[in-house]
Request: fold
Amino acid sequence: MHSLNAKSKPTPSNERLEAFKRAKSLNNGVSVSWLEQWWNKDALSVSHIKTSDYELLRTLKITTIRLPVAFEHFESTKIPVEKVFTHIDEVLKQCRLYGIKLIIDYHYGKINDNNYLTETPKVINSWLLLTKRYIRESPNVLFFEIYNEPPHMDPKVWKDAAYNIVTAIRKFDKKRTLLVGASNYNSIYELSRMERLADENIIYTFHFYEPFLFTHQGADWVGDQVATTGIPFPYNVKTYPAINPMVIGTWGENNYYQYRTDGNEQSVRDKLQIVKNWGNKYFVPIICGEYGVYRKYTEEDSRARYIKTVRQTLKALDIPGILWDYNTNFSIFNGEPNLNNLSGAMKDAIGYRP
Reply:
């Protein structure tokens, strides 16, 4: 009964050791996110990733593509699932060709505390279609991330939903390694409070955008909390901007003053150590499924310093990391993805050596 008590350090199962090995292989990844863009009317009419992109990823030694897909949206707007699958098939084919791993990620589900009884079966239906379609794909190459960023909800309710999704997939596919995160948007804090699932073949995922005030400065979809822009990383008393009046009275006000202690490498390390400790406690593999910086208002060198800090800290803690994202508003490139649009600081940040 190796799943009962993690503290007594029983011998891990072969499945668990396999999951560790696969997690390690997912390092140096990037999310390629056009199939999650439900607001983009061209999302399914053109392929937003070309042969030259795969060549570039290989040059940059990117070993993993995480592919977020807005399955729920496509289904509710009556888009034939085959149309979506055609794109996934193509990405998978190219990944095989270029020796890149692929994570298919269920993005923008609607599960919450009130509707999980009706929404969870919808998620399961999508996964059963995917599971049966890709049953022959090597579990060393293709991974399933069961659900992106479950909202701020009762962790027990989410764990129950996650368990049901995993169990449904397992009826057909025993070998696939699944990625599962915690509620509150794949929060490190929720994950550190979660008990692991009984399934042995799971990698636990979390998203890391701390300090949020820096990584999401000026992001209009977040709201007034992040209206202060020009925030440097690390914190610098000389260049720290005055607070934007719109922030006052929101949680962003507290974060603004907190940044003096949060905006540095040590704070990033301390926070990532929290999830590392959790992974050690249960002896389960963990992965940082997203990290990155919103481009629009953030100075290039600060972005590069932050990405380098997170990347190197993850590496030191032996946690694989996946950047968000390849070619939209968190991109590491200044313009179209190519080497000329990658600054010297950013090349250094991602460890690119020609």
